[in-house]
Amino acid sequence: MASSSVDVKMLHKKYIEERDKRLHNGNRDFIDPIGYFPDFDRDPWAIERITRDAITEEVDVVMTGAGLAAELAAAHLHDAGVTNIRFIDEAGDFGGVWYWNRYPGIRCDIESYIYLPLLEEVGTMPREKYSSGKEILEHARAIARHYDFYSKAIFQTKITGATWDEASDRWHITTNRGDVIKTRFMIGTSGYLHRPKFPNVPGIMDFRGRIFHPSRWDFSYTGGDSDGDLVKLKGKRVGLIGTGATGIQIMPHLAKYAYRTYLFQRTPAAVDVRNNRPTDVAWFKSQIPGWHVERMDNFHAAVSGEPIERDLVDDCWTRAAGRLFKSTAGGVNSNDPADAIEALQRYDYELMQSLRDRVDKVVKDRKTADSLKAWYNLFCKRPLYSDDYIECFNEPSVRLIDTDGRGVERFTKTGIVANGQHYDLDCVIMASGFQVGAYEPKTATYPIRGRTGQTLADKWAGGVRSVHGLWTHGFPNFQVVGTILQAGVSFNYMWLARQHAIQAAAMISRALREDVASIEVTQDAEDRWAQTMQSKAQDRTHFEEECTPGYFNNEGNSSSPTLFMQTYGGGAFEYFDILRRWRESDYQNDTVVKRAAQSRKSALEPA
């Protein structure tokens, strides 16, 4: 059995007590800032408005976005010989989430050598083990230059609707620029964390100071750029709400420049050392072709507990997972699930205790240190890594306002009330994250109307219905890239998106070669996938019910399926194998395929 250095009963009791505080007292509902705050209707990074005439055209494929997932799909299409494509994006350039998010300190928490797509194809060598947001944006632009995607993109353009036209077997896409673009295939590449949210705190609209979300950072107010240097914050009193991946990256820069920085904390972050470092040039140049995909596969295997000969990434992610999944060590009966679960929980307790011990070693003030300790299981929230977040609480300008699970009480014209005390503020930064999803009613940004006239948002109002999370009945020639709902899941989003891109390129290129007018998955296929999802489901109910509220567990609301309960439970490798078999042959049992000759004939027949 594992070490007995932790008091299991005491820790379980403590975790439940901390969870209950947040369930009963926290601000768990959110508002959409779009429409409330004018900054969300403008692009802070667009130097000037692009002027152009409206476009009327027909293409083979439209990418509804220009982020990394869209570029991946387009690159695989390009390699399959499909080049008559169009990107449409509200942003002013390629990059997606990395275009919009340029806040100080922004950095990916997944190793650059496995997160950045198409490294071998484009020839990019990341400068560090963990890339900054600025470098990721540079790489997105490098991909676009490499494949000549700039000639195929229209930016600063919002899609206003996409409607399937049965007579022509085309998607008709309209935009706020008056464009009418007809396309044989449409690929949906809106990320599942793309729509910002604010906590619904009373009085938020009354605040007279500056307030913004990190995805719309105002450097004209703070000074500096994504590297920091926020010189205009000198003399300012700044409040930060949010202790997730974004908040912990912003905090050290606020601490360095603001006269006073208040972190309003509802739930402490569990933060391990990132240990970022420059790329070893000799090592990188010594890699043999195919190393990139091999390294991505190795990372996922390591964090999933699958056997590997060597941990190629060897970082906090893989080491933590490696420790957690040693459930058969120390005399554990591997044939007894209860024994294995008990061992996993003990390892989790020990790992989290090591993070709490680190806080004690770093933070000088005891009260502050105690308030920064996280009391929940590691994977209740996305694990966080930083080399300077915990350290910044030793700065004299920093004040931690721990609300003991309640959250802030209200805004006033001049600041925030928390724990019954008013804090005067000049600026509030809402690092409060994003709504989960892309095409459901709360997150859809335009109507996608399928063959029967039903919108995708309406169809998915009660939950996603699909085949593999990618295709859905009633919406021919439409595939999603980069989803996790009813699909495989990985902490490395780009690894998953790559497989979806491969699927889209294979299906679309075959259809174009074979003169196929439309491909639509059947209702029976959807039903079979729903049955497969159910048979493969991993019951996380008990684990998630004991977690502190967060977006992984619907903020503690168990009345609807949580994020991971909606993903394929058989593991990503098994899911990828299903995709491979489907595109090679199985799709014939799940789809209705209309040939172009049939389409032309039906169009000539009288109604």
Structure description:
The protein is α/β, with parallel strands linked by helices and 607 residues long. Helices cover 33% and strands 16% of the residues. It has 19 helices and 24 strands. Strands 2, 3, 4, 5, 6, 7, 21 and 22 form an eight-stranded mixed sheet that branches. A five-stranded parallel sheet has the order 10-19-11-12-15, covered by helices on one side. Strands 16-17-18 form a three-stranded antiparallel sheet, with no helix packed on it. It is globular and about 75 Å long. The relative contact order is 0.14.
Write the layout of secondary structure elements.
Elements lengths: L7 H18 L4 E2 L24 E9 L3 H12 L5 E4 L8 H4 L11 H4 L3 H4 L10 H14 L6 E2 L4 E7 L4 E6 L4 E9 L6 E2 L1 E2 L10 E3 L6 H4 L14 E5 L3 H13 L2 E6 L5 E2 L8 H5 L5 H14 L11 H9 L12 H26 L3 H6 L12 E2 L12 E5 L7 E2 L3 E4 L2 E4 L2 E4 L3 E2 L12 E2 L6 H4 L18 E3 L12 H21 L2 E6 L1 H14 L4 H5 L26 H13 L6 E5 H9 L3
Parallel strand pairs: 2-3, 2-7, 3-4, 5-21, 7-22, 10-19, 11-12, 11-19, 12-15, 13-14
Antiparallel strand pairs: 1-9, 5-6, 6-7, 8-20, 16-17, 17-18, 23-24
Helix pairs in contact: 2-15, 10-11, 15-18
How many helical elements? Answer: 19
Principal-axis shape equals: globular
Beta-strand percent range: 15-25%
Mean pLDDT: 91
Structural class by helix and strand composition: alpha/beta
Number of spatially distinct domains: 2
CATH topology name of the largest domain, in short, is FAD/NAD(P)-binding domain
